[in-house]
Amino acid sequence: MAPRCDAVIMSRIEAPRDETTSNLTDRLLAGLPADAVLVDPDVTASYANDMASFCPAGTPAVVVLPRTVEQVQHVMRTATELRVPVVPQGARTGLSGGANATDGCIVLSLTKMDRVLEISPVDRIAVVEPGVVNATLSRAVEEHGLSYPPDPSSWEMCTIGGNIGTASGGLCCVKYGVTAEYVLGLDVVLADGRLMSTGRRTAKGVAGYDLTRLFVGSEGSLGIVVRAVLALKPRPPQQLVLAAEFGSAAAACEAVCRIMAGGHVPSLLELMDRTTVKAVNELTRMGLPESTEALLLAAFDTPDPAADLAAVGELCEAAGATQVVPADDAAESELLLQARRSSLVALEAVKGTTMIDDVCVPRSRLGDLIEGVERIAAKHGLTIGVVAHAGDGNTHPTVCFDAQDPDECRRARESFDEIMGLGLELGGTITGEHGVGVLKKEWLAREIGPVGVEMQRAVKDVFDPLGILNPGKLF
Amino acid sequence: MAPRCDAVIMSRIEAPRDETTSNLTDRLLAGLPADAVLVDPDVTASYANDMASFCPAGTPAVVVLPRTVEQVQHVMRTATELRVPVVPQGARTGLSGGANATDGCIVLSLTKMDRVLEISPVDRIAVVEPGVVNATLSRAVEEHGLSYPPDPSSWEMCTIGGNIGTASGGLCCVKYGVTAEYVLGLDVVLADGRLMSTGRRTAKGVAGYDLTRLFVGSEGSLGIVVRAVLALKPRPPQQLVLAAEFGSAAAACEAVCRIMAGGHVPSLLELMDRTTVKAVNELTRMGLPESTEALLLAAFDTPDPAADLAAVGELCEAAGATQVVPADDAAESELLLQARRSSLVALEAVKGTTMIDDVCVPRSRLGDLIEGVERIAAKHGLTIGVVAHAGDGNTHPTVCFDAQDPDECRRARESFDEIMGLGLELGGTITGEHGVGVLKKEWLAREIGPVGVEMQRAVKDVFDPLGILNPGKLF
């Protein structure tokens, strides 16, 4: 999702603005080119939201699109002087409202800072600006025989800066971990416009507190990332996929436990529950048997993936799989993954709207989570499909509802919350990879407790004493 | 190194104490058993230092050895009320003075909190108390087919709490990363005695700021870790080692670059320079050829390590190796590793005393670092051997000197500092895995700059407003 309508440059004369906005715009224009400052309300309104449902968004006063670190510093100095809130944005593909505008804010879109500055195969690092699209980086490093593993579903659109802001995950995490594990160092513009470097460009380093990791996942509330040093991995062999059908979600979860306890390291281990399988069947006519109550997809990118798939296939059968289908090659693998890829679209087709939850539980509790979600769906009379990064215990229970039906909306929100409560009960977290944003801020306090909230707020105050950085998010 | 002399319990009547210490001891004893409070000066003096050279240490007022979280909370509440500094300690194997006592402090030794509370093969986690020795945990998880990779040289003695405090590394890091990457969640007693939980026990989680990582490597300056949830890996196959001899350090570094740029993932990639090879030869009579100017050790724990070693052996030869010796089995591998294992002892034998530096540079600059260290050694007329976790660019230039010779001591310290300066010039860090402690605190400011120092100090103030947690370290 590239920034919409940014070709429509503000007209300082024609756009109706009040005095405050006018002053703000004039100050911004003192350090930014005219085409980097948008004030046309029709244009700025298009920057108000990310992709989350049920998240209020305000009306930005102005949208800025800086191209240099100095321009970002100018924006932050201006914001500090005028006490104007700043909402940093990447591609706005987030699912928690973390990039939603607040009234009168400066939307600081980093999408124009989109250069890959360096790729080093010896040091296995890339240095990038925050607006680089995940897929652009992934393809650029591939040419050097390298891989940047983090692969959120939105990887064709989302930016590295957004990935860092939300510490995003993806399908690869079961083997390769999340974004946080690939961020070695950052250049950050602080709230007052000063530039701070954190971390390093070396493989190791323990000089001082790990502020790099503090910024990763901080949802733009501590500073503006303007440059990142990212760790890369050697490009792995093409993965080979296996699909296993089960007569119950419990059996599929048992297979997940056996695979992980057996010491296997799949490059992907995804689960779709009955509801999701049915929705996918209806949308895509893939012809999955109606008796399939859960579908497990496992992949390996090891030197001998067929051998690994065979071993995992046996574990699936021992756990009760009704059918095990290993792919023979990349094309067949891709076909098997289609079911997973179309899950969210298929669930959206059920009722027109979805709310995607993001509860992560210890993988030993995955079965309990899915069972509990079925109970919650029945209680509220709703369809809730579970798609899960099963190897990580990270589930996306997806509530399907009719947004035109107020009662259904209420029940959707209630069930969404009950699922988070269930996740906490099971020793899990309210968010595995999507972040807190606006959507889950009441729940953050329940997860981390009053002492945790107090200390986190105090850390926020250190970096943002005036409270101008993405206010109303997280806490 | 278990706490020394802790069988000698204080005698409250016999030990000479001033009034302040007496009051402190009485207050501590209100919440701790008598055998957990040591005040005999001969005993407490034995807790004054870790293993760093050139680091001043003060005289502790008292040493406490709590066994429960509640007892740690009592210690911290007491310290806060009486404004007494607290120095947390593990096994005191650190190399930067980070665990050195300050005058009148409470030494808080966590060595008695040494239980492995849980090991879960399905969730691939262990839950431990801070005093668990690294080797104890490693062996305990091995029985479950699992591995806890971080392996500092002192792994037979050092504690997990100490590892967390210094974010320690080891030989395995080139493939498996450092301690920080294995810490999922922490229970921390804050300066005022309150208990805070950070992080999670799930594979993923992004709820709020990553305070877990903030504590890892914070050298006991932000709070007292009393429990940790650690990530585990499946136990890898036994590694197979290759040794390659080179006619120059530059050629060995070139081999390192080719191996890493070639996409190989060794489980170990260590380099010893000419000085180290010579010292090892002299100590152990291993019979390495005198013509060897650098020795490279590479290992693989892959499904087919022999094939990987063959490929890496070819790269070594292409880079100019004079001899390549791949091991056939585990026993031969162990033999090859002996040279590396005896390096530090061998360098210590040169002059009686060593100062071990810990500079990490981008691995593409490894050759420049080693060349620069040779220059610094020549300038100061000193022997400096370089042992390096070459795959990480993490070098341990080890300055050999006669501690009885004041001029040599001065030159040792100067060359030690010049090596850090060189590391920074080459885009590296002053510490890859040993931490800042007392030894490098002047240098931390040079690495992270004034804004970094200001923000780090402010973060410290959030968690330790009275400045009682390990004062005089880091900053």
Automatic annotation (TrEMBL), chains A, B:
InterPro entries referenced in this protein's UniProt entry, alphabetically: FAD-bd_oxidored_4_C, FAD-bd_PCMH, FAD-bd_PCMH-like_sf, FAD-bd_PCMH_sub2, FAD-linked_Oxase-like_C, FAD-linked_OxidoTrans_Type4, Oxid_FAD_bind_N, Vanillyl_alc_oxidase_C-sub2
Residues in FAD-binding PCMH-type domain copies: 56-235
Molecular-function GO terms, alphabetical: FAD binding; oxidoreductase activity
Coiled coil region boundaries: none
Cofactor field: FAD
UniProt keyword annotations, A-Z: FAD, Flavoprotein, Oxidoreductase
Family from the record: Belongs to the FAD-binding oxidoreductase/transferase type 4 family.
Full protein name: FAD-linked oxidase
